[in-house]
Design a protein that fits this description.
Layout (H helix, E strand, L loop, with lengths): L11 H6 L3 H7 L2 H8 L22 E3 L6 E4 L3 E2 L7 E2 L9 E4 L6 E4 L1
Antiparallel strand pairs: 1-2, 3-4, 5-6
The structure holds zinc ion (ZN).
Length: about 110
């Protein structure tokens, strides 16, 4: 479900479910496509948002695919792990999946 902060849906969720992989490739950069559509991960310390810290009142981060709000600027912190980190997200904005199949516990957020 596509949901905005104020609770109104914008109908983009259904639109996004119908997109072909070619349409996603057209919309996203190569790096965004790799992360969002192929379960990719950028190498630690290379992301342009890792060291980007807006002021606490300066809005929120959104999904590059559908523009849904994910977490507020005030939730971002420097974890030192090399990837952008946040300690809370908007309700319903992120799905999680835990994968133990490789012998290492991996958390996917999507
Ligand atoms: Zn999205």
């Amino acid at each position: 479900m596509s949901k905005k902060i104020d609770g109104k849906t914008d109908g983009k969720a259904d639109e996004n479910k119908r997109k072909t992989e070619a349409e996603w490739k057209d919309q996203l950069t190569d790096a965004e496509y790799y992360v969002l559509r192929q379960k990719g991960t950028e190498p630690a310390g290379t992301g342009k948002l890792e060291k980007f810290y807006p002021t606490k009142d300066e809005g929120h981060f959104v999904c590059a695919g559908c523009a849904n709000p994910l977490y507020s600027a005030s939730a971002k912190f420097d974890s030192g792990c090399g990837w952008p980190a946040f300690d809370k997200c908007y309700t319903g904005s992120i799905n999680t999946h835990v994968d133990d199949s490789l012998g290492v516990r991996t958390f996917y957020f999507f």
